[in-house]
Amino acid sequence: MAPAEIGAARAKAPPASANRNQDAGAIVNAMTIDVEDYFQVGVFQDRIRPDEWDRFDCRVEHNLDRCLAILEEGGVRATFFTLGWVAERYPAAIRRLAELGHEVASHGYGHRPIWQLDREAYREDIRRSQGVLGEVLGAAPTAYRAPCFSVRRDTLWALDCLFEEGIRVDSSIFPVGHPEYGIPDAETRIHRIALADGELVEFPMTVGSLLGKKAAFCGGGWFRLFPYALTRRSLAGSNRKGEPFVFYLHPWELDPDQPRLDDRATATGRFRHYVNLARNPAKFARLVSEFRFGTLGEAIEDRIARTGELPLVRFAEI
Description:
By secondary structure, this protein is an alpha/beta fold. It is built from ten helices and 13 strands. Strands 1, 2, 3, 4, 11 and 12 form a six-stranded mixed beta sheet that branches. It has a five-stranded mixed beta sheet with strand order 5-6-8-7-13, with helices on one face. A two-stranded antiparallel ribbon has the order 9-10. Helix 1 runs parallel beside helix 9 and helix 4 packs parallel to helix 5 (157-164).
């Protein structure tokens, strides 16, 4: 796949400097933002139905502004994996992302994990998202991340659906063991996946190690829960090996004043969702200031420029 084909819908913008505080020769890591609101996340999935979403105070525009301010301060462009539901209701906010030079990619329409859907329902979710985002942006996205990282061994069929609907880059596979998601022995480097009718570029989520076992320090609740030093060490370790790191964050994770939904989650879910929200904006700003970041597409292009063609992996090898 040629570098020009890689990435998501992006407005014209000056060449990426990634982080203005970093050496221009440093590896470009991928900064990714999963655009969903606080009431749409996995911990509330079984207790808040999608037909209830419009009843909640939506804070996604406010939180996108907070996120953009931090990225702007660091001179970083990011890839925003956006729910079709959000783009449908806040098209101006999503168009603004592209106008500022960020990549806008798909996070599906309704934030339902693939394992809850059959092929027909999943394809309909992707088509609906592609239609909404395409109308908002003028072109449908070519990059995607599954809700809840729900591309796992029993849902690998979803990759063929993505390709058929115009997706060419995926960032859904987590090479780690987890009760709900992950393919523990999956390829950890950026690679190509051979499909029935073509290839996808897969940028898997970055894993580190803790006490000799694979662990995730690449964003989300892990970033809020663990000391900053663990993420920093994991990121620096990936770069020393010549590999880019992919970091992810949700805009609601920068919003300690969001409405509390304690009655809508288990005790574990409440902890996962609310732990260290007040500290997270400062931690995020520090990360942005200390490492070189760019969009998913820029990180892939940088990887190809450094090492040549990406390795090819077949389903049987994942």
